[in-house]
What does this fold into?
Amino acid sequence: MSSTAAPSKTRKTAPDTAGAGPFADLHMHTLFSDGTFTPEELAARGAGVGLAAMALTDHDSVEGCERMAKACGGLGVEFIVGTELTAEFAEKEVHLLGYYFDPHNETMLAEIKKFQAVRQSRIGEMVAQLNKINVPLRAETVFALANCRSPGRPHVARALVQEGFCQSMEEAFDRFLKKGRRAWVPKRRISAVDAIALIQQAGGLAVLAHPGLNHCDEIIPMLKEQGIDGIECFHTKHGPKMARHYLDLAARLGLLVTGGSDCHGFSKGQPLIGGVKLSNVYFQRFKAAHEARQSRCPGVGAPT
It folds into this structure.
């Protein structure tokens, strides 16, 4: 399979996710970034579809993790701290998922604060672009709707719908917010090498998210050399053939396997939770890798 192949739109169960549970979903978002569920709602829905373990991976945020951990604990669901960082490597945008890091790590929190400031600045730039083409959306409207420190394009799209400038989020993206459209503003990104180091210095594991969406197969061996720990092989937009492709690649490179629905609540249509279930075999290997690293480096990532 070439790295330029279009991601499959099928949502059929991918290989090695079928069969008896327990299952995990390691890629989900709440209203602390661009999702629509509270941590408690997300935990309840996860338990409702039979998940045994869940990770919260809000964009540039760990603010929902404490509430999510508490909610999962009350439901008997194992919780994994996480976040999603937008990065760049070899002139390609990549998304990196960090797991099991200390959410109180001072270096991690300082960098996340910078990422959030960039996100907020980008909202202002997108609104300014809209104003130039006579769409009088106000930045304050977007920030009030987002009500979080990590706003993004989906919040601008929702605001455009809310204020009557567009009929749907799809229209908002198609007319204004997609790359190349008049209100699109490029996102400032951290180096993937620095992002991997940031996650790992806080005691975490770094995973390449949905590689099929970023068409970046050729850089995965290079990311392995830079210390990345795993690949998200199972994803809502990875059909069975694509999932098998990344499973084979992970095996060849000695990388861990993860998977998740990338659920954003109702932000992107119907909730996706339950559509991708990472089998316990892969989850236990992932968990064991974290425990092994902690045993080798007991001081790394310890609460500050």
Remarks:
- The first strand starts at residue 23 and ends at 25.
- Residues 1-14 have pLDDT under 50 and may be disordered.
- DSSP finds eleven helices and nine strands in the chain.
- Residues 7 and 199 are 27 Å apart (CA to CA).
